[in-house]
Amino acid sequence: MIKEAMLYERLDNSKVHCYLCSHHCRVLSGKFGICGVRENISGKLHTHVYGEVIAAHIDPIEKKPLYHFFPGSTSYSIATIGCNFKCPFCQNWEISQVSKMDNDISGRETRPEDIVRDAKLAGCKSISYTYTEPTIFFEYAYDIARLAKKEGLYNNFVTNGYMTAEALETIKPYLDSANVDLKGFSEDYYSRFCHAHLEPVLESIRVMRKLGIWVEITTLIIPGQNDSEKDLKGIAEFIAGVGKEIPWHISRFHPDYKYLDSGPTPVETLKAAKAIGERTGLRYIYLGNILEGNDTYCYNCRKLLIKRVVFDVVQNNLKGRGCPECGAEINGMFQEGDAL
What we know:
Layout: E1 3-4, E2 8-10, E3 16-18, E4 26-27, E5 38-41, E6 44-47, E7 52-53, E8 55-60, E9 74-79, H1 93-96, E10 108-109, H2 112-121, E11 126-129, H3 138-150, E12 154-159, H4 165-171, E13 177-181, H5 187-194, H6 199-211, E14 214-221, H7 229-242, E15 248-252, H8 267-280, E16 285-288, E17 296-297, E18 304-309, E19 312-316
Parallel strand pairs: 9-11, 11-12, 12-13, 13-14, 14-15, 15-16
Antiparallel strand pairs: 1-6, 2-3, 3-4, 5-6, 7-10, 8-9, 17-18, 18-19
Helix pairs in contact: 2-3, 7-8
Protein backbone atom coordinates (compact mmCIF):
# COMPACT_ATOMS: atom_id res chain seq x y z
CA MET A 1 0.00 0.00 0.00
CA ILE A 2 1.32 3.46 -0.93
CA LYS A 3 0.54 6.07 1.70
CA GLU A 4 1.69 9.64 2.25
CA ALA A 5 4.53 9.71 4.75
CA MET A 6 4.79 11.47 8.07
CA LEU A 7 7.64 13.70 9.20
CA TYR A 8 8.70 15.43 6.02
CA GLU A 9 8.55 18.88 4.51
CA ARG A 10 8.13 20.04 0.93
CA LEU A 11 10.95 22.05 -0.62
CA ASP A 12 11.37 24.02 -3.82
CA ASN A 13 11.44 22.29 -7.20
CA SER A 14 9.32 19.36 -5.97
CA LYS A 15 12.08 18.22 -3.62
CA VAL A 16 11.23 16.96 -0.12
CA HIS A 17 13.18 16.81 3.15
CA CYS A 18 12.52 13.65 5.17
CA TYR A 19 13.26 14.09 8.87
CA LEU A 20 12.04 10.70 10.04
CA CYS A 21 15.60 9.47 10.54
CA SER A 22 18.95 11.14 11.01
CA HIS A 23 20.00 10.74 7.39
CA HIS A 24 17.74 13.75 6.71
CA CYS A 25 17.38 12.77 3.07
CA ARG A 26 16.63 15.49 0.53
CA VAL A 27 14.78 13.56 -2.14
CA LEU A 28 14.12 14.62 -5.72
CA SER A 29 10.80 13.87 -7.36
CA GLY A 30 10.73 10.29 -8.59
CA LYS A 31 13.56 9.22 -6.27
CA PHE A 32 13.78 7.21 -3.04
CA GLY A 33 15.50 7.96 0.26
CA ILE A 34 18.39 5.88 1.59
CA CYS A 35 15.91 3.45 3.16
CA GLY A 36 14.63 2.43 -0.26
CA VAL A 37 10.98 2.39 0.79
CA ARG A 38 10.08 6.10 0.88
CA GLU A 39 9.62 7.82 -2.48
CA ASN A 40 9.04 11.40 -3.56
CA ILE A 41 6.02 11.24 -5.87
CA SER A 42 5.39 14.61 -7.52
CA GLY A 43 6.65 16.61 -4.56
CA LYS A 44 5.04 14.51 -1.80
CA LEU A 45 6.83 11.81 0.20
CA HIS A 46 5.16 8.40 0.29
CA THR A 47 5.86 5.12 2.06
CA HIS A 48 5.60 1.93 0.01
CA VAL A 49 5.49 -0.51 2.94
CA TYR A 50 2.41 0.55 4.89
CA GLY A 51 0.55 -2.61 5.83
CA GLU A 52 2.97 -4.92 3.99
CA VAL A 53 4.00 -7.42 6.66
CA ILE A 54 7.01 -9.48 5.63
CA ALA A 55 7.35 -11.28 8.98
CA ALA A 56 4.98 -11.91 11.89
CA HIS A 57 5.77 -14.21 14.80
CA ILE A 58 4.91 -14.75 18.45
CA ASP A 59 8.21 -14.35 20.31
CA PRO A 60 9.27 -14.44 23.94
CA ILE A 61 10.05 -10.88 24.99
CA GLU A 62 13.54 -12.12 25.94
CA LYS A 63 14.26 -12.65 22.23
CA LYS A 64 14.14 -8.90 21.49
CA PRO A 65 16.12 -8.89 23.86
CA LEU A 66 14.15 -7.13 26.60
CA TYR A 67 14.91 -8.71 29.98
CA HIS A 68 13.38 -6.08 32.27
CA PHE A 69 10.10 -5.60 30.43
CA PHE A 70 7.48 -8.09 31.64
CA PRO A 71 9.89 -11.05 31.62
CA GLY A 72 8.35 -14.32 30.58
CA SER A 73 5.67 -12.66 28.46
CA THR A 74 5.19 -13.01 24.71
CA SER A 75 5.30 -10.26 22.10
CA TYR A 76 3.62 -10.23 18.69
CA SER A 77 6.57 -9.33 16.47
CA ILE A 78 6.24 -7.80 13.01
CA ALA A 79 8.32 -6.23 10.25
CA THR A 80 8.15 -4.84 6.76
CA ILE A 81 11.11 -4.80 4.37
CA GLY A 82 13.81 -2.13 4.45
CA CYS A 83 16.45 -0.48 6.60
CA ASN A 84 18.36 2.79 6.77
CA PHE A 85 21.64 1.04 7.65
CA LYS A 86 23.77 -1.14 5.36
CA CYS A 87 25.47 -3.42 7.89
CA PRO A 88 27.40 -6.23 6.14
CA PHE A 89 26.83 -8.56 9.11
CA CYS A 90 23.03 -8.18 9.25
CA GLN A 91 21.32 -11.37 10.40
CA ASN A 92 18.01 -10.45 8.74
CA TRP A 93 19.51 -9.21 5.50
CA GLU A 94 17.03 -11.15 3.32
CA ILE A 95 14.28 -8.72 4.39
CA SER A 96 16.17 -5.68 5.68
CA GLN A 97 18.54 -5.13 2.78
CA VAL A 98 15.92 -5.11 0.03
CA SER A 99 14.05 -2.10 -1.27
CA LYS A 100 11.14 -0.88 -3.34
CA MET A 101 13.59 0.90 -5.66
CA ASP A 102 14.55 -2.48 -7.06
CA ASN A 103 10.99 -3.85 -7.04
CA ASP A 104 12.06 -6.39 -4.44
CA ILE A 105 9.79 -8.59 -2.36
CA SER A 106 6.62 -7.29 -0.79
CA GLY A 107 4.77 -8.43 2.28
CA ARG A 108 1.28 -9.64 3.05
CA GLU A 109 -1.23 -6.79 3.23
CA THR A 110 -2.40 -6.54 6.83
CA ARG A 111 -4.42 -3.76 8.43
CA PRO A 112 -3.31 -2.28 11.78
CA GLU A 113 -6.47 -3.55 13.45
CA ASP A 114 -5.67 -7.07 12.24
CA ILE A 115 -2.25 -6.93 13.92
CA VAL A 116 -3.80 -5.83 17.21
CA ARG A 117 -6.51 -8.49 16.97
CA ASP A 118 -3.98 -11.24 16.29
CA ALA A 119 -1.75 -10.09 19.14
CA LYS A 120 -4.65 -10.23 21.58
CA LEU A 121 -5.87 -13.61 20.33
CA ALA A 122 -2.35 -14.97 20.85
CA GLY A 123 -2.32 -13.74 24.44
CA CYS A 124 0.64 -11.42 23.84
CA LYS A 125 1.49 -8.69 26.32
CA SER A 126 2.99 -6.42 23.69
CA ILE A 127 3.66 -5.78 20.03
CA SER A 128 7.28 -5.53 18.91
CA TYR A 129 8.36 -3.72 15.76
CA THR A 130 11.49 -5.67 14.98
CA TYR A 131 13.53 -7.89 12.59
CA THR A 132 14.10 -4.90 10.27
CA GLU A 133 14.28 -1.21 11.29
CA PRO A 134 10.92 -0.02 12.68
CA THR A 135 11.71 3.61 11.90
CA ILE A 136 11.42 2.70 8.21
CA PHE A 137 7.79 1.59 8.62
CA PHE A 138 7.02 4.35 11.10
CA GLU A 139 3.56 5.26 9.77
CA TYR A 140 2.39 1.66 10.03
CA ALA A 141 3.94 1.17 13.46
CA TYR A 142 2.40 4.44 14.66
CA ASP A 143 -1.12 3.44 13.61
CA ILE A 144 -0.78 -0.03 15.12
CA ALA A 145 0.69 1.34 18.35
CA ARG A 146 -2.19 3.77 18.83
CA LEU A 147 -4.75 0.97 18.45
CA ALA A 148 -2.70 -1.39 20.61
CA LYS A 149 -2.55 1.10 23.47
CA LYS A 150 -6.35 1.44 23.44
CA GLU A 151 -6.60 -2.35 23.71
CA GLY A 152 -4.23 -2.54 26.69
CA LEU A 153 -1.19 -3.78 24.78
CA TYR A 154 2.34 -2.42 25.12
CA ASN A 155 4.59 -1.40 22.22
CA ASN A 156 8.32 -2.03 21.72
CA PHE A 157 10.86 -0.89 19.13
CA VAL A 158 13.91 -3.04 18.37
CA THR A 159 15.94 -0.41 16.60
CA ASN A 160 19.29 0.91 15.44
CA GLY A 161 18.39 4.19 17.14
CA TYR A 162 18.78 6.36 14.05
CA MET A 163 15.39 8.06 14.29
CA THR A 164 15.08 11.80 14.95
CA ALA A 165 13.89 13.40 18.16
CA GLU A 166 10.77 14.48 16.23
CA ALA A 167 9.98 10.85 15.46
CA LEU A 168 10.43 9.81 19.09
CA GLU A 169 8.32 12.66 20.38
CA THR A 170 5.59 11.75 17.90
CA ILE A 171 5.34 8.11 18.93
CA LYS A 172 6.15 8.60 22.63
CA PRO A 173 2.51 8.43 23.86
CA TYR A 174 2.33 4.88 22.52
CA LEU A 175 5.90 3.54 22.74
CA ASP A 176 6.74 1.82 26.02
CA SER A 177 10.17 0.30 25.51
CA ALA A 178 13.04 -0.02 23.06
CA ASN A 179 16.09 -2.16 22.63
CA VAL A 180 18.67 -0.03 20.85
CA ASP A 181 21.62 -1.47 18.95
CA LEU A 182 24.66 0.55 19.99
CA LYS A 183 26.90 -1.11 17.45
CA GLY A 184 30.21 0.48 18.35
CA PHE A 185 31.68 3.59 19.86
CA SER A 186 33.57 5.31 17.08
CA GLU A 187 32.53 7.43 14.15
CA ASP A 188 34.82 5.37 11.96
CA TYR A 189 33.00 2.15 12.85
CA TYR A 190 29.56 3.62 12.09
CA SER A 191 30.80 5.14 8.86
CA ARG A 192 32.46 1.95 7.57
CA PHE A 193 29.90 -0.63 8.67
CA CYS A 194 26.57 1.17 8.82
CA HIS A 195 27.04 4.08 6.39
CA ALA A 196 25.79 6.28 9.22
CA HIS A 197 27.03 8.32 12.20
CA LEU A 198 27.44 7.55 15.89
CA GLU A 199 26.15 10.72 17.58
CA PRO A 200 22.51 10.47 16.40
CA VAL A 201 22.28 7.01 17.99
CA LEU A 202 23.66 8.31 21.28
CA GLU A 203 21.23 11.22 21.16
CA SER A 204 18.27 8.90 20.53
CA ILE A 205 19.14 6.92 23.65
CA ARG A 206 19.32 10.12 25.67
CA VAL A 207 15.99 11.33 24.30
CA MET A 208 14.26 8.01 24.94
CA ARG A 209 15.26 8.12 28.59
CA LYS A 210 14.10 11.73 28.92
CA LEU A 211 10.76 10.79 27.40
CA GLY A 212 10.28 7.94 29.87
CA ILE A 213 10.69 5.05 27.41
CA TRP A 214 12.25 1.94 28.99
CA VAL A 215 15.57 1.33 27.22
CA GLU A 216 17.85 -1.68 26.95
CA ILE A 217 20.98 -1.66 24.80
CA THR A 218 22.58 -4.39 22.69
CA THR A 219 26.13 -4.44 21.31
CA LEU A 220 27.21 -7.12 18.85
CA ILE A 221 30.92 -7.66 19.47
CA ILE A 222 32.86 -8.27 16.25
CA PRO A 223 36.44 -9.49 16.70
CA GLY A 224 38.99 -6.90 15.67
CA GLN A 225 36.40 -4.20 14.94
CA ASN A 226 34.63 -2.97 18.09
CA ASP A 227 36.15 -5.18 20.79
CA SER A 228 39.01 -2.99 22.01
CA GLU A 229 39.07 -1.99 25.67
CA LYS A 230 38.71 1.64 24.55
CA ASP A 231 35.54 0.90 22.57
CA LEU A 232 33.96 -1.26 25.25
CA LYS A 233 34.81 1.17 28.02
CA GLY A 234 33.39 4.00 25.93
CA ILE A 235 30.08 2.18 25.49
CA ALA A 236 29.87 1.24 29.17
CA GLU A 237 30.67 4.75 30.35
CA PHE A 238 28.13 6.25 27.96
CA ILE A 239 25.40 3.91 29.22
CA ALA A 240 26.30 4.65 32.83
CA GLY A 241 26.15 8.37 32.08
CA VAL A 242 22.59 8.03 30.80
CA GLY A 243 21.54 5.60 33.52
CA LYS A 244 23.32 2.79 35.35
CA GLU A 245 19.98 0.98 35.46
CA ILE A 246 19.95 0.48 31.66
CA PRO A 247 20.56 -3.22 30.87
CA TRP A 248 23.46 -3.89 28.48
CA HIS A 249 23.26 -7.00 26.27
CA ILE A 250 26.68 -8.01 24.95
CA SER A 251 26.16 -10.39 22.04
CA ARG A 252 28.39 -12.89 20.32
CA PHE A 253 28.99 -12.39 16.61
CA HIS A 254 28.55 -15.18 14.07
CA PRO A 255 29.59 -14.73 10.42
CA ASP A 256 26.66 -13.82 8.20
CA TYR A 257 25.63 -12.03 5.00
CA LYS A 258 28.62 -10.15 3.54
CA TYR A 259 30.87 -10.20 6.61
CA LEU A 260 32.60 -13.55 6.65
CA ASP A 261 36.08 -12.28 7.50
CA SER A 262 35.96 -13.23 11.16
CA GLY A 263 35.09 -16.23 13.24
CA PRO A 264 32.65 -16.08 16.16
CA THR A 265 33.47 -13.79 19.05
CA PRO A 266 35.49 -15.57 21.74
CA VAL A 267 33.44 -16.04 24.90
CA GLU A 268 36.38 -14.57 26.83
CA THR A 269 35.87 -11.29 24.96
CA LEU A 270 32.24 -11.14 26.08
CA LYS A 271 33.26 -11.79 29.67
CA ALA A 272 35.93 -9.10 29.46
CA ALA A 273 33.32 -6.64 28.19
CA LYS A 274 31.04 -7.61 31.07
CA ALA A 275 33.85 -6.98 33.55
CA ILE A 276 34.38 -3.52 32.05
CA GLY A 277 30.68 -2.79 32.43
CA GLU A 278 30.71 -3.95 36.04
CA ARG A 279 33.68 -1.72 36.86
CA THR A 280 31.78 1.18 35.28
CA GLY A 281 28.89 0.55 37.66
CA LEU A 282 26.27 -0.87 35.29
CA ARG A 283 23.66 -2.78 37.27
CA TYR A 284 22.50 -5.34 34.72
CA ILE A 285 24.75 -6.92 32.09
CA TYR A 286 23.82 -9.91 29.95
CA LEU A 287 25.65 -12.11 27.45
CA GLY A 288 23.87 -12.91 24.19
CA ASN A 289 24.10 -15.76 21.68
CA ILE A 290 25.64 -18.06 24.27
CA LEU A 291 24.04 -20.25 26.94
CA GLU A 292 25.43 -18.48 30.00
CA GLY A 293 25.11 -14.98 31.39
CA ASN A 294 21.35 -14.55 30.94
CA ASP A 295 20.19 -14.45 34.56
CA THR A 296 19.13 -11.34 36.46
CA TYR A 297 20.72 -10.66 39.85
CA CYS A 298 20.01 -8.00 42.43
CA TYR A 299 22.54 -5.22 41.88
CA ASN A 300 22.70 -4.66 45.65
CA CYS A 301 23.02 -8.12 47.26
CA ARG A 302 23.56 -10.37 44.18
CA LYS A 303 20.52 -12.53 44.93
CA LEU A 304 19.38 -14.56 41.90
CA LEU A 305 16.12 -12.97 40.80
CA ILE A 306 15.29 -14.34 37.35
CA LYS A 307 16.80 -17.49 35.89
CA ARG A 308 16.64 -17.97 32.12
CA VAL A 309 17.40 -20.90 29.85
CA VAL A 310 17.92 -19.42 26.40
CA PHE A 311 14.71 -17.34 26.00
CA ASP A 312 12.67 -19.11 28.68
CA VAL A 313 12.17 -17.75 32.19
CA VAL A 314 12.34 -20.84 34.41
CA GLN A 315 12.46 -19.07 37.78
CA ASN A 316 11.28 -15.63 38.91
CA ASN A 317 11.94 -14.69 42.54
CA LEU A 318 10.95 -11.03 42.29
CA LYS A 319 8.37 -9.68 44.69
CA GLY A 320 6.70 -7.08 42.56
CA ARG A 321 9.81 -5.19 41.50
CA GLY A 322 11.67 -5.71 44.75
CA CYS A 323 14.48 -8.07 45.72
CA PRO A 324 13.13 -10.65 48.21
CA GLU A 325 16.49 -10.73 50.01
CA CYS A 326 17.38 -7.07 50.60
CA GLY A 327 14.34 -5.16 49.33
CA ALA A 328 16.24 -3.21 46.66
CA GLU A 329 14.03 -1.93 43.86
CA ILE A 330 14.91 -3.61 40.57
CA ASN A 331 14.71 -1.33 37.57
CA GLY A 332 12.28 -2.15 34.79
CA MET A 333 8.62 -2.92 34.18
CA PHE A 334 7.58 -6.17 35.83
CA GLN A 335 3.87 -5.76 36.56
CA GLU A 336 0.94 -3.61 35.53
CA GLY A 337 1.27 -0.04 36.80
CA ASP A 338 5.06 -0.01 37.02
CA ALA A 339 6.58 3.35 36.11
CA LEU A 340 10.16 4.04 35.17
